Amino acid sequence: LLILIGIAVYLLWKKICLLPSYEELTNSVTPTHPDASLEDQTLTQPSSVIQPKTGAYVIGSINPELYKFPEDKSETDFPECNIGRLWFSVQYEQEAERLLVSLIKARKLQPPTDSCSPLVKIYLLPDERRYLQSKTKRKTLNPQFDENFIFQVSSKTLYQRTLKFSVYHVDKQKKHHLLGQVIFPLKNETFTGDSKLVIWRDLEAENLEPPSEYGDIQFSLSYNDYLGRLTVVVLRAKGLKFQDARDAASVYIKVSLMNHNKFIKCKKTTAVLGSPNPVYNETFSFKADQTELDTASLSLSVLQSAEGDKTHLLGRVVVGPFMYTRGKELEHWNEMISKPKELVKRWHALCRNT
């Protein structure tokens, strides 16, 4: 009997003490008419209700800012003197040893006339005799290609190859006028699985000057006065004259920093096989105080590997202040100093008596 009485008292206490309690709001929001003005609705809100500020959202609501995709500025941000931009993607199938190139689109082409009928020729350097060609798009400065191309290339030589996209305008007489080109070395790319990354590059104008006697080299210079760093980007060479007739000639470029004709430091590019027009696209940095720029210089030597440890000098160019250089080499150096932190790109003729 005592146990039953105890259970009954416990259940009664639980029912009374654990009932949910509610607190009545002292200030309630007065509903507003849908046609009421924003000012009238603001006046009807009680002072105890806090209005969310701009950029803040009530708990449980969706913040649209979190679901926005990053803005693609590749079709809106074009630098001055831009002659066009090209979009493409590259993928490599290891088992079939096939390089898949997807040509996507081009924008803001600059033809010699008002109308433009563009097409693109795709080369896999160093082979410049064979190429794959897109369809011609009629009367458009912003062609959409969406075409796929296949190059058969072994995995051993893949990273020594370079893609070259040449964009042409086809006139009414079917003549091709080069609008610009894109050089894309494969050595810095990582091909994993079936991933396909969309790439865009600005078109470059082709150097129409005939090759010099020993060939030419293109590189960029930049100086960061804050860090005291001199940067050289070795891009490519063309028209090189090999010392012998070997097809598999191996060519590299040595970049040396000098001060008062005293050797400071040198760096080398990787060797490229079998092409008189090798592409490097390699960057080197040197420490150089701003006070040393009047006495420093850069020497870029193009060297061909021979049997054993021997090398043949194919040509050299020196850029620096008035103490060492004249002409285009001096202009390149002075432009680099006048435009700090900006890459200044130029072609230079090679010589062998520098």
Automatic annotation (TrEMBL):
Region forming the signal peptide: 1-18
InterPro entries reported for this sequence: C2_dom, C2_domain_sf, Synaptotagmin, Synaptotagmin-15/17_C2A
GO molecular function: calcium ion binding; calcium-dependent phospholipid binding; clathrin binding; phosphatidylserine binding; SNARE binding
Annotated family: Belongs to the synaptotagmin family.
Coiled coil: none
GO annotation, cellular component aspect: exocytic vesicle; plasma membrane
Keyword Phosphoprotein included in the entry's annotation: no
Start and end residues of each C2 domain: 82-201, 213-334
UniProt entry keywords in alphabetical sequence: Repeat, Signal
GO process annotations (BP): calcium-ion regulated exocytosis
Record carries keyword Endoplasmic reticulum: no
Alphabetical list of Pfam families matching this protein: C2
Lineage: Eukaryota, Metazoa, Chordata, Craniata, Vertebrata
Highest taxon of the lineage: Eukaryota
Name under which the protein is recorded: C2 domain-containing protein
